[in-house]
Amino acid sequence: MIRTCLAIGLLAASVGLSFSTAARATGAEVDVPRPERFVSAEQWGSDPDPIDDSRRHTPKYVTLHHAGVKWDAGRDPVAFIRNMQSWGKRRPEVEPPPRNTYWPDLPYHFLIAPDGRIYEGRPLDYEPESNTKYELAGHIGVELMGNFEEQRPSPAQVDSAVRLTAWLLGKFELPLAAISTHGKVAKGQTSCPGRDFARYFEGDPPEFNTWVGRVLDGEEPRIELGAPLAEGPKKLITESEGVPQE
């Protein structure tokens, strides 16, 4: 590790980059604090079944999703997560093949509520679950609650997603190129994470990666969400219909 850091430091000096910029490009260790709005699995009352050791993996990617379920104001994020966990265990009883596989725990490692709170889900030691076909091992699943085909992610959600992704890249010494979306890794199978969130993962570099890079550099991400898409949703998830939150 000392040799790696030294080599990166020399590279940075030779091309006029800061150490953190070189480190995030190559996947070297970067000290990024865990986001503040973090709710542990124990705090929200997670009740998983045991996961088989065959599902253990080494994280290599951070893959962003949306829930694909429209969010209504007043909905309780904890109840939503608990219902998802319970439903996953009951899939063999309630879902037709091939969706009737048993999920012992939440399919995602982290879930982000409209107010920006980050809920810890499946332990990072285990690969995620999916209804689509791609190599699951290595992927850290990060889901934002809501359906971004029908509503827009809140600034708080995107901010938390950026900070969480930066923390994960630093924790596992991953490069910015490790960031992706469900739609990119399962091409042609899903519109996830919804057009109004997926747009931030396009371009060279993608805006989302730029925001994450700033956090890795010890800066504020300076996130600026775009205007509503011409054929896309107009309202933020926090403006959804339903019983207003108190």
Structural account:
This protein has a domain at 57-217: Peptidoglycan recognition protein-like (Lysozyme-like, 3-Layer(aba) Sandwich), CATH 3.40.80. α1 crosses α2 and α5 (155-172) packs across α8. The chain starts with a helix and ends in a 30-residue tail after the last helix. β3 and β4 (118-120) form a beta hairpin. The chain is 33% helix and 9% strand. It has 246 residues and is of the alpha/beta class. The chain has helices at residues 2-15, 19-26, 41-44, 77-94, 155-172, 182-185, 195-198, 207-216, and strands spanning 38-39, 61-66, 110-112, 118-120, 139-144, 179-181. Residues 1-19 have low confidence and may be disordered. Strands 1-4-3-5-2-6 form a six-stranded mixed sheet. Residues 1-25 form the signal peptide. InterPro entries: Amidase/PGRP_sf, Amidase_domain, PGRP, PGRP_domain_met/bac. Residues 49-194 form the N-acetylmuramoyl-L-alanine amidase domain.
What are the SSEs and their pairings?
Blueprint lengths: L1 H14 L3 H8 L11 E2 L1 H4 L16 E6 L10 H18 L15 E3 L5 E3 L18 E6 L10 H18 L6 E3 H4 L9 H4 L8 H10 L30
Parallel strand pairs: 1-4, 2-5, 2-6, 3-5
Antiparallel strand pairs: 3-4
